[in-house]
Amino acid sequence: MLAVIGGSGMAQLPCLEISHRQIIRTPYGEPSGPLTFGKINNHEIVFLARHGHGHIIPPHAVNYRANIWALNSLKPKHVIAVAAVGGIHADFKPGMLVIPDQIIDYTYGRKFTFFEGTEQPITYTDFTYPYCQITRDYILEAAKQANEAVIDGGVYAATQGPRLETAAEINRLERDGADMVGMTGMPEVALAKELGLCYATIAVVANHAAGRGSSVLAIPLAEVYAILEKAMVNVRNILQQAAKY
Ligand code: HPA
Fold first, then answer.
1. Angle (CA) 242 102 3, round 5°
2. Closest by Cα among 148, 147, 141, 130 to 201
3. Are 139 and 2 a contacting pair, CB within 8 Å?
4. What tens-digit pLDDT sequence spans the chain (245 residues)?
């Protein structure tokens, strides 16, 4: 089974023939919403909206542990996370899709591990390569088959939000080596890694990061939503192709 976590601009998956919804309780509380089960191209999919139905849960308040625990309980073959980002690298323009291969964590105060209790043995999870290469290849192949352009690789900077960054913060992230910036990449991918899930992300560039691009004005949010809506058609094409094999 393929699991999809939908982010901003993807609160549902219109190509999904829904069979049922299931509320899953976890030792970490409730996920962002019920899991939606259905089929795309006769292939089983489970979908979870990261920000809940109606996009009500801000990035810092998402129960990442419950979401990942709930999906892991279904033992999916792959988890594809869709996430909006701001483009820092000059090549990462609004509307483009990127499959990141690295991440830097700038978040704080989030529940970021399944191994926090002193009653558990200390567990050091190898995080050298945070995203599952098998899932990355699976997405890249699906994109190729679907004739959708994606950028293979890039460093995702995960910021706390919900405010956007200052121009100076973006300069700093760039100096750190980041190519894109988003608010939900962490701890999601780390939790998936802790449980051994095959997880990778389709990052959708929604805007130029703060202080970048030709606009001297703040990030035009209405434009951002329009770009996301358009790019989600490309994401859906990739997912429809991915569901075939
Ligand atoms: N910054 C942080 N998160 C984001 C952005 C951004 O510019 N765009 C979409 N998610």
1. 30
2. 130
3. no
4. 999 999 988 888 888 889 999 999 999 999 999 999 999 988 999 999 999 988 799 999 999 999 999 999 999 999 999 999 999 999 999 999 999 999 999 999 999 999 988 888 888 999 999 999 999 999 999 999 999 999 999 999 999 999 999 999 999 999 999 999 999 999 999 999 999 999 999 999 999 999 998 765 667 788 888 999 999 999 999 999 998 87
Neighbours of 132 (CB within 10 A): 19
User: Do the annotations mark residue 159 as ligand-binding?
Assistant: no
Kindly give, in sequence order, each residue whose CB lies less than 8 Å from that of residue 212, ignoring residues fewer than 6 positions away. 86, 87, 88, 90, 170
Q: Of 8, 51, 60, 85, which is best to mutate to test ligand 1, by the most ligand atoms within 8 angstroms of its C-beta?
A: 85
DSSP-based three-state secondary structure for 44: strand
List strand residue ranges (DSSP E) for 139-238, in order: 151-152, 155-158, 180-182, 199-208
Closest CA to ligand 1's atom 7: 86
Classify the complex by whether its ipTM is higher than 0.90, answering yes or no: yes
Phi and psi angles of residue 65, each rounded to the nearest 5 degrees, phi first:
-65, -45
What tokens appear for 34 in the block? 């019920």
Which residue has tokens 């939908």?
6
H/E stretch holding 35: strand 35-40
